[in-house]
Design goal:
With 189 residues, the protein is α+β, with helices and mostly antiparallel strands. The protein is 20% helix and 27% strand. The chain contains two helices and eleven strands. The strands form three sheets. Strands 1-2-3-4-6-5 form a six-stranded antiparallel sheet, covered by helices on one side. The protein has a three-stranded antiparallel sheet with strand order 7-9-10. Strands 8-11 form a two-stranded antiparallel ribbon. The protein is globular and about 45 Å long.
Length: 189
């Protein structure tokens, strides 16, 4: 069996010095990085380069990243991850987010790792508060699932990943196919 080499860690992304990889998904990798101007840790979400080879697909991924930056960047809420910066024209494009110390709620969904009911109720309340805040600003997240909720080491929770969010206000009709994670979609979808 031949093992594939681990992807090489970039030294920097834009002005941000990469420290280590935090996570990897189907379309992007998230890195822990240092902002040289504020001397703070940030999370840099960068689209996988291989997804940008075909011009049409590259435009789609750049548009989705720009959408996430524009929509989530307007949200200032204690339970929504802050967006600090974005470069949708970089090769590959990236988004700079608030770094959260903790773990996604997806780590706590197996029977042997379930959280006690009291913190779960607190998490539900805070998530509902964040979703209500986004909704009153005309945003529908469209991909609420445990992997998109970060449980901080402090016990607080942050909603993240507005990559599939939909702006419901405005005079443009928006049509799209089914969006989200099938296991966590409303039954009517």
């Amino acid at each position: 069996i031949r093992r594939m080499a681990a992807p090489q860690l970039p030294e920097s992304i834009g002005k941000y010095k990469v420290v280590r990889e935090l996570g990897r998904g189907a379309s992007s990798t998230v890195y822990l990085a240092q902002d040289p101007f504020t001397d703070t840790k940030v999370a840099v979400k960068r689209i996988h380069a291989h997804l940008l080879r075909e011009e049409r697909e590259a435009a789609r991924y750049r548009r989705a990243l720009r959408n996430e930056a524009l929509l989530a960047g307007r949200l200032k809420h204690p339970h929504i991850v802050a967006v600090y910066d974005a470069d949708c024209e970089a090769d590959p494009p990236y988004l700079v987010l608030e770094h959260i110390e903790g773990a996604p709620l997806s780590r706590f969904i197996s029977p042997d790792r379930l959280l006690p009911i009291e913190p779960v109720l607190d998490i539900c309340y805070k998530c509902c508060s964040a979703l209500e805040y986004a909704h009153t600003r005309g945003l529908v997240h469209r991909d609420i699932k445990p992997a998109n909720l970060m449980l901080q080491t402090s016990g607080d929770v942050k909603l993240m990943d507005f990559g599939t969010a939909l702006m419901t206000q405005g005079d443009v009709t928006q049509l799209a196919g089914i969006v989200g994670s099938p296991q966590y979609m409303a039954p009517e979808q």
